[in-house]
Structures are given as structure tokens and as C-alpha cells.
Amino acid sequence: MSVKIIDLSVPLQNYASEPSPPQISYYNHEDGARRLAALAGVEPSDFPDSQAMSNEVVTLTSHAGTHVDAPYHYGSLCEGKPAMRIDEIPLEWCYGPGVLIDVRHKQPGEEITAGDIQKALSKINYTLKEGDIALLWTGVDKYWGSPRYMQMQPGLGLGGVTWLTTHGVKVIGIDAWGLDRSVKKMGEDIRNGADKSVLWPAHLYGKKKEYLQIEKLANLDKLPPYGFTIAAFPVKLSRGSGAWTRAVAILEDKK
Questions:
Q1: Mean pLDDT of the region 211-235
Q2: Which of 15, 105, 136, 191 keeps 20 to 30 A from 128, CA to CA?
Q3: Architecture of the domain spanning 67-253
């Protein structure tokens, strides 16, 4: 049996396509020699070629890069009890069968509906199972690194997230900045007189039903419709509302 692992994550990087990008300072091997020499009371030249261990200092939010949102991100209460934080979620939720839901036909700012999801599943002749990890394939990751990235996404509507979670899905991923429609489009709708319920409906649904989001996925075009396993374990950030993950898809060839 052979195993293929597909990286579904965007990098943590300076000047990333998000409102609060990471700030990364890089320290090379000569810097490492100076730092460690000072700690040890020796000279940098005591290291071979005056080089020692490199390092990076990273300042970032817990929702930078590819990450998992915990129920606490959506509100302090979920299903009438204190919402789980990222270090409290069952890791079993983050490892399971993946199914690719192709919604690339949706335009920027449009809502991904329950009907869209049902049609996509019907096309691949797939029935959701308890514990499936649903991946919404918008194709927006191709704009990563561009100012257009945050403007191009459609987003999951209240009907869509309700349908998925009532059919056994605990984890929903998307290859865009967030699971909801673009911030720009939601704001425009409010200014044009829309009901305030258009603001982050998928996120705020998480107050009523426990589920996780994986945001800023990538490379979903490399996946088959189903028959693969998703692993997206979040970093154990104490009391966090979310945390970073190196999300991957695992494909096994049993021949």
C-alpha cells in the first residue's frame, strides 16, 4: 500500500492576504552564533564558521494562515453551555473522511445554499456520513497573495451550514479567507437595507450547534471527490478561540 499526502495549507508569511498578517523576523546562522555565544559566555567564532542555529520570531493572531475555529470563536455559549475552546475540542473531529463539495460556480459574494451542496453531492453520487469532513471548493485560493483574495469568495449561508451539521458534519472547511461571504459584500448588503442576519450567519450559527471550521485551505483541486482522509489537528493553544493547523489530505492506494 502506498500513501500520498497533499498539503492543503497556505503558508504563514509576511504580507499575507489577510487583515492581520503575521509579522516574521528571521535570524540567520550568524545571528544564532552571536545569541548563543552571549548566553554561554563564549565567542561567536567558537562555533564552526561562526555559525549556529537559526531562528524566527513570529507575531500573529490565532486565526492567521490555515487554522481551525473552535466553538468559542462564535460565541461564549454554544447549545446553552460554555463553548469549547480550541484546546478542549475532541481531536477525533479533526481526523476523518473528507468529501469535496464543488461550488466553484458561485460568484464572489454569493451564498452557498443547502441546494448547492445537495446538487454537488448528487453529481458525485455521495451521501454524507456521521463524522465526514466537508470541504467547500470555491477555487478562491488561486488569488492567495493578491489584494483580490478577500473579495472573491462566496460564503456558506445559514441554510447550508444547518443542512451540513444536521447531516452529521462536525467540521467544515473552505479554500477562502472565511466560511461566510466576503466582508465587503455583507457590509454592502447592510448599507443597502438588508436585515442584520446577513452578517456572519455561518459563524454565528455556531452558537446553536457545535462545529468547527477550517479556513484558508488550498490545493483542493488536487483531491478526488471522496475516498481520502483529512487531518487538521490544531495547535494546542491554551484557552484559544482557534489555532493554526497544517491541514493535509491522505490518499491511500491499496493496490
A1: 98
A2: 105
A3: 3-Layer(bba) Sandwich (3.50)
